[in-house]
Write a structure and sequence with these properties.
Elements: E1 2-5, E2 18-23, E3 28-33, H1 58-62, H2 68-88, H3 111-139, E4 145-150, H4 157-162, H5 165-170, E5 173-179, H6 181-192, H7 195-198, E6 206-207, E7 215-216, E8 220-224, H8 230-240, E9 249-254, H9 262-275, E10 279-286, H10 292-303, H11 317-325, E11 331-336, H12 337-341, H13 346-355, H14 361-368, E12 371-378
Parallel strand pairs: 4-5, 4-9, 5-8, 9-10
Antiparallel strand pairs: 1-2, 2-3, 6-7, 7-8, 10-12, 11-12
Helix pairs in contact: 2-3
């Protein structure tokens, strides 16, 4: 048996200090709480292991009571971790350094964490490109692709897509980034403060209804909204951004829905399915929450005001699929990140593995088993959205 310090595996500064004890003969893992560290490392990502998860109380399903600042902090930490990974060469993103404030400080993470972000970014990116390709193959260069990034944080998807001259030449790609106002205000400031970001915006750049906190251009919109408020999202997307519900639209959420109540998530997914004629959804989120390790993290985050309100929908891959199938979507498939990594080019995975040695590959496999991606589609059989496979 050996102990592995797991503080750096998780971007959750609100978690207790713990170790995973590895029993190689039984191939099992146990979380053991230890004394808290002198400084604690924060959420928008997190892996787990296999036992019994806490049932949510009735009030947690009806009241969206998570303080916004706790959710906002998860974006700051996730962005810093991604920036570390980019600087170390896990993937290329010349735009991310312009989005992350230079004065922010955090603890350097273990290689396992950076490989986790690499897998997340590249797998989501692969599905986005497959969606765009399917639309253009079926409808030609005049087709408009609409992408809505829910809880986008400082994500740079719009700039990464529009830096690809071939993609831009093939047709219009409309991207909407949506998040809480404090996040969009900072992002708006970063965008307007960097010529390289402004140069890739198309047409006139103008303020949204919240000056200095929102902006609009021909193919990019940055809007503020509480994702738990479907009526507000509907108004912002349809009235302010003027999205066309008849155009194929892709929604992305990365570790977002789990912070919403079950009822709010159902309402949002149902509204999308009813409103958009052709839609797809990429959801990156925790899975297998019904285990001992998940219980420890759930309780620790709840005690610090970061309730994983929809954890009961994240107990299995099948439950992730049912979340969509029960709200009007035509198809859904889910896979854990071990499976998803098998879809990435092996040569690139090998390159990443050479950046830093993973001390405990079996622990990494366990962690990857507790994150998942769900691909759901509503309509779109005519353009092949139902033919897109996760693995």
């Amino acid at each position: 048996m050996e102990s592995i310090d797991c503080r750096s595996f998780f971007p959750f500064s609100k978690l207790p200090h713990f170790r995973i004890q590895t029993f190689h003969s039984q191939n099992t893992f146990h979380a053991v709480k230890m004394d808290p560290p002198a400084t604690t490392p924060h959420p928008r990502n997190m892996p787990r292991t296999n036992s019994q998860s806490p049932a949510l109380t009735p009030e947690s399903d009806t009241v969206n009571s998570i303080p916004d600042e706790n959710i906002i902090q998860t974006n700051e930490e996730a962005s810093l971790c991604k920036l570390d990974a980019v600087k170390l060469g896990y993937w290329q993103d010349p735009y991310l350094p312009m989005m992350v404030h230079g004065s922010l400080r955090h603890e350097r993470k273990a290689p396992d964490m950076y490989k986790g972000y690499y897998a997340r970014v590249k797998c989501v990116e692969r599905l986005v490109l497959q969606f765009i390709a399917a639309v253009r193959r079926a409808r030609g260069p005049d087709a408009v692709v609409q992408i809505v990034n829910l809880g986008a944080g400082y994500d740079t998807l719009y700039w990464r897509l529009h830096a690809n001259a071939e993609l831009v030449r093939q047709g219009k790609m409309r991207v909407v980034d949506l998040d809480l106002l404090p996040v969009t205000t900072k992002k708006c400031h970063f965008i307007r403060g960097h010529k390289q970001l402004m140069d890739l915006l198309i047409g006139e750049v103008r303020d949204g209804e919240v000056a200095h906190g929102e902006l609009h251009s021909d193919e990019y919109d940055l809007i503020s909204s509480d994702i738990r408020d479907t009526l507000q999202i509907e108004r912002k997307l349809m009235d302010n951004c003027k999205l066309d519900p008849k155009q194929p639209t892709l929604f992305i959420a990365e570790c977002v829905l789990i912070y919403m109540s079950t009822g709010s998530t159902k309402q949002l997914l149902s509204w999308i399915a009813k409103t958009f004629h052709t839609a797809a959804f990429i959801n990156y989120e925790q899975v297998h929450m019904d285990d001992h390790f998940g219980q420890i993290m759930f309780d620790a985050l709840k005690a610090q005001g970061c309730l994983l309100a929809d954890a009961d929908s994240c107990k299995s891959l099948e439950m992730h699929e049912q979340r969509f199938l029960k709200t009007g979507w035509d198809g859904a498939q889910a896979a854990d990140m071990n499976q998803m990594c098998g879809s990435l080019p092996q040569a690139d995975v090998d390159r990443v593995d050479r950046i830093a040695m993973i001390d405990e590959p079996e622990v990494l496999r366990q962690l990857f088993a507790h994150y998942s991606i769900t691909w759901a589609q509503k309509g779109g059989a005519d353009i092949g959205l139902d033919k897109i496979r996760l693995v």
